[in-house]
Design brief:
Low-confidence stretches: 1-12, 240-245
Number of domains: 2
CATH topology of the largest domain: Chorismate lyase
Helix content: 25-40%
Largest sheet: 6 strands, antiparallel
CATH superfamily of the largest domain: Chorismate lyase-like
Number of strands: 10
Shape: elongated
Distance between the termini: 42 Å
Length: about 240
């Protein structure tokens, strides 16, 4: 695997030299060229490749180590760290915040925002009578313009009457619901599935592609607020949890 520096990345004045090195290393990792445990070039090699001082190369490696992208082993070198889980089973996080925490840009595509009639499954999940009116949204969340989550959500209109009037390009449903109906409880179920045609088209993957599907029901002190299905391409997302005793 080559450490050849792409032309243009070291253009004078385009960005600080240490930032250019960081950007190059991140690009190699995110493209899959440098997998977990890959030994990255040394400070001396980076200094030579980028025509910078060793101190500048050291700053780039140190900052990436502090950010959890790299791991340094005394006497052995610097290596690509294991990917940090994008989400947790133990907390309900805003997908936009998860993406921002990785230093990436967030965007979304709103596919549906409507009032509909609750099916049996949805009415049971939201503790409503079957056939009740519910709010239905379908949104695709993007990480650096790459679709990473298909979100289908049913929301209780009694508890969140202004749901359909929100601009979800500015604030995600999770962010909005957390603000207007603070979370007191969440039930989560995770399963492996193959993408159907709808999910495949939305996530820009082939039907049948392995995906991680999360069912999540959230409650506030007033009752059950929403019931959501979150689908992630298996090769773009991972869940993790840490328990301390």
């Amino acid at each position: 695997m080559s450490s050849q520096i792409p032309s243009g990345i070291t253009e004078p004045g385009s960005q600080p030299r240490y930032a250019a090195i960081k950007a190059h290393i991140r690009a190699q990792i995110e493209s899959g060229e440098w997998a977990a445990h890959f030994r990255v070039p040394s400070e001396n090699q980076l200094a030579h490749d980028f025509n910078v001082s060793r101190m500048t190369a050291r700053r780039a490696l140190s900052e990436l180590t502090d950010e959890g992208v790299l791991i340094r082993s005394q006497g052995l070198g610097t290596f690509v760290a294991e990917p940090v889980p994008a989400g947790s089973l133990l907390e309900v996080r805003n997908i936009a915040d998860e993406i921002a925490a990785r230093g990436h840009s967030y965007a979304n595509r709103i596919l549906k925002l409507e009032q509909t009639t609750a099916s049996t499954e949805v009415s049971v999940a939201l503790s409503l009578a079957e056939g009740s009116a519910v709010y239905h949204s379908v949104i695709v969340h993007l990480d650096n313009d790459l679709p990473i989550q298909f979100e289908e959500r049913y929301t209780n209109p009694t508890l969140v009457p202004e749901y359909l009037q929100q601009d979800f390009t500015a604030a995600t449903p999770n962010e909005y619901l957390t603000r207007v109906a603070p979370l007191t409880e969440a039930d989560t179920t995770v399963e492996a599935i193959g993408a159907d045609d709808t999910v495949g088209e939305a996530l820009e993957i082939k039907p049948g592609t392995a995906c991680l599907q999360i069912w999540r029901r959230t409650k506030s002190s007033a009752g059950t607020v929403s019931f959501a299905r979150l689908v992630h391409p298996g090769n773009r997302y991972r869940l993790g949890a840490q328990l301390r005793f």
